[in-house]
Specification:
homodimer
Chain lengths: 241, 241
Amino acid sequence: MTKRIRISEIFGPTIQGEGPLIGRPTVFVRTGGCDYRCAWCDTLYAVLPEYRDDWLPMTPGEIMARVDELAGGKPVLVSLSGGNPAMQPLAPLIALGRERGHGFALETQGSISHPWFAELDWLILSPKPPSAGMATDWHAFDACLAAARGRPRCVLKVVVFDDADYSYAQAVAARYPALAVYLQVGNPAPLAGAAHPADADIDDLLRRLRWLVGKVTADRWFAATVLPQLHVLVWGNKRGV
Amino acid sequence: MTKRIRISEIFGPTIQGEGPLIGRPTVFVRTGGCDYRCAWCDTLYAVLPEYRDDWLPMTPGEIMARVDELAGGKPVLVSLSGGNPAMQPLAPLIALGRERGHGFALETQGSISHPWFAELDWLILSPKPPSAGMATDWHAFDACLAAARGRPRCVLKVVVFDDADYSYAQAVAARYPALAVYLQVGNPAPLAGAAHPADADIDDLLRRLRWLVGKVTADRWFAATVLPQLHVLVWGNKRGV
């Protein structure tokens, strides 16, 4: 029997707002459940057990039917996100999608690895900086890279709110000199309370981006790429876009 | 005797705000002079003959000394822009920069080609859509791609203001199916008059971005990448950032 996958939401096509695939049209498949509790998590509805009733256990066939419907039957980049999508049995979904010509990018904090990471096109590893309040298990993180076996493009994405996060990002980059590093400006709106998730303070986000660009250029850290969450600038902290 | 290069400005390091290198730290080398007169040109100070007195004829050694100074002696991505930088004799500059470990990206409308295009890391070809009021010479454009000889990464970047521009971008993409296409949201501020170049209407730009994402996703044009001019969102239409 095919194992079901816990799905929080499937939406798109829209553009990827973050990281190396910024601006690329994609369909998001967001799984429910996470082994982390980041202080500034912007998708708690896909993390906390009290939302579990909103998560639908779906078969790979059901998920792919929905992706195909949204994509109008055309091959598309599927962004596997969460929560932590690595908690789910995604191998059959990826195999099914590949048959139909879809590509797959998975983003995870790097706490859980699987052999099927090698079947992805992109593995975006996003270790959590001090501001998240989570400790990185580097042994588990290394296992994710090992599981990829050099097949997907592996990159690092680190959210930066402050100097401590920035130092953490530098340390991560030094640990993995072969990987491209994307620094993402922290979005404090989720910290301000989930009651008004659509309220993004654009001026504040752009100020934070200027600060981060200033840090990187002052340090001549030319290997880093600095990006905002484009979707937050465009749509605010709204779901489903 | 080494030929001098007409320089409008050299600045950075800052982040590249556009196209495939969005978010990457770079030093800009902007040349003076252009064979086009785009209606919405946002760098007329590097285009119009009346600014010619502001352009400094510099040797490759002088330019590279300034780049090295700005980059703190570290290898950096050099963005060759204009004007049309293909009007300048850039081969010795690129050779000199390569010796020092720098990388080079050149952006041009594709009206003038050179054998030294093959020495670049990135060739960003930006044919001008109907809103620019310029006609594309496809023979000259093809010559640019031929000159690159498959060595730099060649991509297309098309500015889109309206439906006619969008149709043009689709036709360009169909003509070059092997090249990645970046659609860039048009910035109408320069059209409103150069007197207040710092006035970028961020809300309007984000509205245009939402419109363009809507077009691309409705058409299931999944091979396109949709991006804003990030530097305009961050700094407005300000020079030197």
